[in-house]
């Protein structure tokens, strides 16, 4: 929570409040929650929905000593549930280079929410954002659909959604390749920060990841190939794309997506965004091809 809220708060407060910030860094988690609350009207109330302010206030009480010891099991469960609510609201705007996805998964696992059992728990154990950036530099990230300017981008939620998918594909592919022994270009430094699944676990998840990613890639390609002017047909294609995205989030990340058909439609109809979608789809397609090669390699190695 400290990492995610700290990253999100510091940049916003420095840009928006400057010298008016009531508490100067370095900040503790209690400080960050207090800043969210104190500057709600001026800054954060314009960014997040009003109902989340109560969650922020409750979290602030817990970490300022007013809500009992955070280390108490009963309080810990309450805090985790409130953190999950806060992260879901933040995720509706952006994945913040994958940090929100990691935080959501950590909270879900701590609460015992089903996420494909021991397999996904191992696949997400000890994931570090710095290492994720390393593997993106090596394997090629979706530069065209990132959230660097998400706050001012009308397509922020769609950008965040595709970035989350790309980050998940990068991370899980690396762990699968490592688990089955498939030759890969992933830096060793990145793999050191990720739990290594057993061969059976990796093979099981490989099949699921290939299926879900293939659905996403095919749906994007169908949207891009649709002739302009066929609005009724286009909507059906975007509904299929949303189904593919939803399936990926639920079956791979055990999360829900907040993106809508209309947001996907506007994104693909924006000439600048469409070019990014074309290039991003190409990269996802190459990632899928590598996963399929791994699957074929696994089958041949077992014969």
Helix and strand layout, with pairings?
Elements: H1 2-16, H2 29-38, H3 52-63, H4 73-91, H5 99-111, H6 117-124, H7 129-139, H8 156-180, H9 188-191, H10 199-225, H11 231-252, H12 261-269, H13 271-301
Give an account of the 3D structure.
InterPro entries: SWT1_Regulator. This is RNA endoribonuclease. By secondary structure, the chain is mainly α. Helix content is 68%, strand content 0%. It contains 13 helices and no strands. It has helices at residues 2-16, 29-38, 52-63, 73-91, 99-111, 117-124, 129-139, 156-180, 188-191, 199-225, 231-252, 261-269, 271-301. α3 (52-63) runs antiparallel to α4 (73-91), α8 packs antiparallel against α10 and α8 runs parallel beside α13 (271-301). The longest helix has 31 residues, at 271-301. It is globular. The N and C termini lie far apart (47 Å). The model is unreliable at 112-122 and 125-150 (pLDDT under 50).
Descriptive tags:
SWT1_Regulator, single chain, mainly alpha, 303 residues, RNA endoribonuclease
* Order of helical and strand elements: HHHHHHHHHHHHH
CA(first)-CA(last) distance: 47 Å
Provide the helix percentage.
Answer: 55-70%
Give a short account of the largest sheet.
none
Structural class: mainly alpha
Radius of gyration from the alpha-carbon trace, in angstroms: 20 Å
Strand content: under 5%
How many helices does DSSP assign? 13
Average residue-wise pLDDT: 75
Low-confidence stretches: 112-122, 125-150
Concise description?
InterPro entries: SWT1_Regulator (IPR052626). The chain is built from 13 helices and no strands.
């Amino acid at each position: 929570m400290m990492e995610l809220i700290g990253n999100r708060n510091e940049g916003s407060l420095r840009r928006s409040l400057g010298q008016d910030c009531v508490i100067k860094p370095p900040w503790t988690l209690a400080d960050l929650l207090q800043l969210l609350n104190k500057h709600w009207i001026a800054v954060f109330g314009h960014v997040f929905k009003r109902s989340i302010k109560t969650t922020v206030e409750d979290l602030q009480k817990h970490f300022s000593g007013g809500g009992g010891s955070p280390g108490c099991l009963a309080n810990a469960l309450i805090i985790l549930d409130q953190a999950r609510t806060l992260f879901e609201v933040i995720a509706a705007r952006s994945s913040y280079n994958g940090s929100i996805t990691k935080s959501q998964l950590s909270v879900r696992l701590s609460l015992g929410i089903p996420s494909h059992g021991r397999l996904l728990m191992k696949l997400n154990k000890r994931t570090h954002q710095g290492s994720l950036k390393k593997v993106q530099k090596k394997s090629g990230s979706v530069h065209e659909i990132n959230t660097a300017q998400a706050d001012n981008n009308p397509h922020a939620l769609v950008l965040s959604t595709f970035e989350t998918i790309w980050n998940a594909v990068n991370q899980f592919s690396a762990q699968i390749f490592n688990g089955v022994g498939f030759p890969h270009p992933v830096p060793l430094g990145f793999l050191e920060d990720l739990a290594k699944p057993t061969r059976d676990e990796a093979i099981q998840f490989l099949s699921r990841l290939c299926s879900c990613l293939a659905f996403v890639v095919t749906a994007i390609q169908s949207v891009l190939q649709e002739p302009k002017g066929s609005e009724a047909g286009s909507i059906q294609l975007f509904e299929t794309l949303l189904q593919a995205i939803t399936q990926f989030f639920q079956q791979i990340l055990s999360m829900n997506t907040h993106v809508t058909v209309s947001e996907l439609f506007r994104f693909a109809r924006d000439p600048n965004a469409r070019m990014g979608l074309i290039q991003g789809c190409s990269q996802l397609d190459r990632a899928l091809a590598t996963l399929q090669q791994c699957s074929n390699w696994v089958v041949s190695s077992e014969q």
